[in-house]
Amino acid sequence: MFQSDTLEHAVDLQARSYALLRWMADGIQRGFIAFDAAHAYADDPRAAAAWIEHHYAEFPPDARPRREHLSEFCNLFASYLSDGHRLVAEPGLRRYSPDAHCFCQMCSWFIHAPSLRSRPLSSGDQRRADRRMRDCLDALALEHERLLEDAEVSALMRDADLREALALYAYTETLLRRLQGWSVENGVPLALWRRFAWTANSAPKRKFQLSAEAILAAQRLLHERLAAPV
Asked: What SS3 class is residue 35?
């Protein structure tokens, strides 16, 4: 069961890490952010940690975590680089790093942040997100001493509200894992996010903001449906 204080903490760090992405992209585009990331840890949260520690005092308040939360913050921030975003190929642009000696993911990502976009989701991403949702649903059902058959799952998933609640619940599980530095299958967080934060017409919901209250409401709905007589 998700607890309110845990969710408030996770949602706060999620919002701050995304604010840092936006601030950093704007800063690099305008040329006022120096780049000195640690090249040796291109796919490791330590690379993000080195950069964040160096520039911590420069961050705007909404992108700056408390120092005691830096480890979790860096874990989450680094996970965005490998999962949710990619460089967009544009004519006339090339990968660049200081002194032209490193073209690792971290270096290229920072330099090209203004060209960063959410990467297109693949069918594999969607299948992995489906499995994550099914795993969460099965785990919740066990709390009610139920073993779900495929037909029962299909019946439950015909409910649009329940599908959205389950996607939000599953995303929250991945968020908590990412904060701890645990691995999450590539593409899953982004695929899940779009199932509750985007409209049925594949556009971001206007003014959508992740909240602990919404997650707890989703959790309640799932438990209510699973506790109901079959």
From this structure: coil
111 and 23 both lie in a single domain: yes
pTM for the model stands at: 0.83
User: Of 101, 118, 135, which marks where a domain is finished?
Assistant: 118
> Pick from 73, 89, 118: which residue ends a domain?
118
List the domain range (segments joined by +) for residue 210: 123-227
User: At 198, is the secondary structure helix, strand, or coil?
Assistant: strand
- The answer to whether 119 touches 86, Cβ cutoff 8 Å, is yes
pLDDT digits (tens, 9 = 90+) for 69-116: 999 998 998 887 666 554 343 434 444 444 544 545 545 545 554 445
Let me know whether 106 and 139 are in one domain. Answer: no
Phi, psi dihedral angles at 204 (to 5 degrees): -60, 140
Residue 178, H or E segment:
helix 160-179
Q: How many domains does the chain have?
A: 2
Q: What is the pLDDT of residues 36-47, one digit of tens each?
A: 433 333 346 677
* CB distance 217 to 168 below 8 Å: no
Place of tokens 């029962």: 152
* Nearest Cα to Cα of residue 35 among 58, 65, 1, 18: 58
Are residue 23 and residue 90 in the same domain, yes or no?
Answer: yes
Could you tell me the two tokens for 42? 């291109």
